[in-house]
Design brief:
five-stranded antiparallel beta sheet, alpha+beta, OB fold (Dihydrolipoamide Acetyltransferase, E2P)
Length: 384
């Protein structure tokens, strides 16, 4: 059941509408916009306070509807060819509990028919506004420079600042994150890793960052985290990747041990698989032998073989074809998802043994093959 949930979540992330670059260690956090992204997409960004909230009491009005005044203190981004007003009315009721200490909001606007139209907003402290303003010149200099700025705010006292800084990493590529990881202070990142009750995505990212800048003691820390189990299993991809960066032989051996142990919890083995996928994407040439060895450990395991086979198919990596085809028909690999994965792989593989395999099973699997071929045709059209 947990495996099915994980697959469903990942499928939703991969097929969802937001295809922005994302860190492999925190794909879930990459789905929401950051302040910087909201800033870039808006025509105007204004900071101010709310006042005079009014419920709409007219007959037939929607319950809870109304309006609220927005008094503008600062224009972080003015709309082109429009004067910024001192105040405007938002078509939404937002309670103001203490008029002497009104809520501060950062509001985002588009221009519609020559007027500002609110598209979103969030409660914002002065610290959050200062953080956003400080980020803007770094964003204009490229992603690595922006990440150096955001890294300094990963432990900010204001939770909204720390959350947004983390989300900026989540929306960055592995290459950009790997580039700046080596520049960070090991002591600073070590404190991040050792924060109590860290969410798995944060622990995964921080562990990888520590692997990029840490030393021997940090490798010991990452090894301890990898062997702790429990919730840490959901952060194993970053923990193992950090350990591999510091101690390649030890890190890969631990990754293989997790992948090859069928008694391990699914979360632990899936975390090790995500580490393999990460290295394939981050350093494909250097990690190729390790990636092949890791996936080869999963192919004889009917519970996880389909994942490894599908990865190899999508990467157009045909080195393990013989082992993959040999699993077809085994009782351990008789689940429909696994049988279809093997057939799909063989249909895409250009090697003669794959074509021979399809010829041998076409009579008994004609309907399945036809169905998979239609799916592959749709997949190719979608890629175009």
């Amino acid at each position: 059941m947990r495996r099915c949930i994980a697959i469903a979540i990942l499928t939703g992330l991969l097929l969802g509408p937001d295809r922005a670059p994302a860190c492999s260690f925190c794909p879930g956090s990459a789905q929401r916009n950051t302040l910087g992204k909201d800033f870039e997409q808006a025509s105007a960004v204004l900071y101010g306070t709310l006042a005079s909230a009014r419920l709409n009491t007219a007959p037939g009005a929607l319950p809870g509807s109304g309006s609220t005044d927005f008094h503008i203190a600062k224009a972080l981004k003015a709309a082109p060819n429009l004067d910024t007003p001192k105040s405007l009315t938002l078509p939404r009721y937002v309670p103001v509990l203490d008029p002497k200490n009104p809520p501060r909001y950062l509001m985002f606007f588009d221009v519609y028919k020559g007027k500002l139209e609110a598209t979103g907003g969030r409660a914002a402290s002065p610290a959050l506004v200062a953080y956003l303003e400080g980020a803007l010149p770094h964003r204009s200099k490229g992603r690595p420079d922006a990440l150096r700025y955001y890294a300094k705010h990963l432990d900010a006292a204001d939770p909204a600042v720390a959350e947004d800084a983390f989300r900026e990493f989540a929306r960055s590529t592995d290459q950009d994150i790997g580039q700046i990881a080596r520049e960070l202070s090991p002591a600073f990142v070590r404190r991040l890793v050792q924060q109590p009750k860290l969410e798995p995505e944060r622990l995964s990212l921080f562990a990888f960052l520590l692997g990029g800048c840490g030393g021997a003691g940090d490798a010991n820390l990452l090894r301890t985290l990898a062997e702790r189990g429990g919730d840490n299993d959901r952060a194993l991809d970053g923990i193992l990747a950090g350990l591999i960066h510091l101690r390649p032989k030890e890190g890969w051996e631990l990754t293989y041990a997790l992948l090859g142990n069928t008694k391990q919890h699914f979360n632990a083995r899936f975390g090790a698989l995500r580490t393999v996928r990460f290295y394939h994407g981050w350093k494909p040439k250097e990690s190729h032998p390790h990636v092949l060895h890791g996936l080869n450990l999963l192919i004889p395991d009917g519970d996880l073989a389909d994942m490894a086979i599908e990865d190899l198919r999508q990467w157009k990596t045909w080195d393990l074809t013989q082992n993959i085809l040999a699993q077809f028909g085994k009782k351990t690999h008789d689940a429909p998802i696994t049988r279809r994965a093997i057939i799909r792989y063989a249909l895409c593989c250009p090697l003669p043994e794959a074509r021979g395999f399809i010829d041998r099973i076409r009579g008994q699997e004609s309907e399945t093959i036809r169905d998979i071929e239609e799916g592959l045709a749709f997949e190719r059209q979608a890629i175009r």
